[in-house]
Specification:
alpha+beta
């Protein structure tokens, strides 16, 4: 078999001796997309580490946590924790019962006072004669009042008749004298009733008993008011963050019972290493990056003001956790309800600025030349 190759004819395979040769379509497309995807996969680590290098050159990240305004509910009176009515995470409204305390000594004193008050109240009052006298005087006062009403009516009639000339002056004067006498009798009855009541109030046995009752009732009211302090309620709406009291525990005044959130703006505490603090000046801007990808603008309201170890939930190094400088930030917008959680981890991203990446010459800063 002889095969001859003609270089001139092989230059244009679509024609043979001047005639057009129709070839069938190829069975598959050239694998350009596959090679492109393969190239992207192979180059993705380079792109990723390149992005991280550029990002770390212009920004610095620091661990942080959301801090909500807190209210600590303390005990006002001493007692034993009888019942804890809430748990961490519960939402409470104003007046919701948080903790119930008991004071056996107070309950015993209150019971003794109640028994003594009941005993004194059940004793017969030695005022039977006085009551009968007052009842008799009341009837007499009613009679004299009726007499005064009659005399006033008679006197008014005589005055009208005298104006018409139908009554003489002597009759009118007699009616007036009768009216004055009736009023005088009524006043005497009233005076006798007042003296009788006054004498009864200053009676020896009854006066001592009334005085004792007033003292005991005042003490009882004071103990009842003190007992109300044993029921601790929520002063405002919020979420319970921590319960510091245990049932059966004896506590004193001022002891912490419940910690709950309160109304107010939340803030963020960021923990920076000493070399990072130059990027966290008061008034500078920052970005809060949450685990779900949410990003919020924030402002530094307080620069490094104290040192503290990074909380365990925020620390990536489980063996070594040196103290860091704490910076306080405030979000420029309210946190969404799902992110308004105390101690919620968040990353704070600060801008390094041109000086930190060696671009100070762009801003004309000669100190960055070195």
């Amino acid at each position: 078999m002889k095969v001859q190759f003609d270089p001139k004819r092989s230059q244009n395979a679509a024609r043979d001796q001047g005639l057009l040769v129709n070839y069938g379509p190829s069975r598959r497309a050239p694998p350009r997309l596959r090679w492109l995807v393969t190239a992207l996969i192979l180059l993705s680590p380079i792109f990723y580490f390149g992005y991280r290098a550029i990002d770390s050159a212009v920004t610095v990240d620091a661990p942080a946590s959301v801090q909500l305004p807190m209210t600590r509910i303390n005990a006002v009176a001493s007692g034993i924790v009888q019942r804890v009515n809430v748990q961490p995470g519960d939402y409470v409204r104003p007046g919701k019962r948080l903790v119930t305390l008991s004071d056996p000594a107070l309950a015993e004193r209150l019971g003794a006072l109640e028994a003594e008050i009941d005993a004194l109240s059940e004793q017969p009052i030695e005022t039977r004669n006085v009551d009968s006298i007052l009842e008799s005087l009341s009837r007499e006062l009613e009679i004299t009042q009726q007499l005064v009403t009659v005399r006033e009516r008679e006197y008014q009639q005589l005055v009208k008749l005298a104006e018409r000339g139908g009554a003489v002056a002597s009759e009118r004067q007699a009616a007036r004298a009768a009216l004055q006498q009736a009023r005088h009798q009524r006043q005497q009855v009233r005076t006798r009733m007042a003296e009788t009541r006054r004498a009864n109030a200053t009676d020896g046995a009854n006066s001592e008993r009334y005085t004792r009752l007033r003292i005991l009732r005042a003490r009882r009211d004071a103990l009842i008011a003190q007992r109300k302090l044993l029921t601790v309620t929520a002063p405002r709406p919020g979420y319970v963050v921590a319960v510091d009291a245990n049932e059966g525990e004896r506590i004193g005044p001022g002891a912490s019972l419940v910690t709950m959130t309160s109304a107010g703006r939340s803030h963020v505490l960021a923990y920076l290493s000493p070399e990072q603090t130059r990027f966290a000046r008061a008034g500078a801007a920052a970005t809060l990056v949450f685990a779900d990808g949410t990003k919020l603008k924030a402002r530094i309201v307080q620069g490094p003001h104290r040192a503290a170890a990074v909380p365990g939930a925020l620390s990536a190094n489980l063996t070594r956790n040196p103290p860091r400088l704490v910076v306080r930030l405030e979000p420029l917008a309210p946190l969404p309800p799902g992110l308004r959680v105390n101690d919620l981890p968040v990353t704070v991203r600060f801008a390094r600025g041109p000086d930190a990446v060696g671009l100070g010459w762009l801003t004309g800063d000669s100190n960055s030349a070195g």
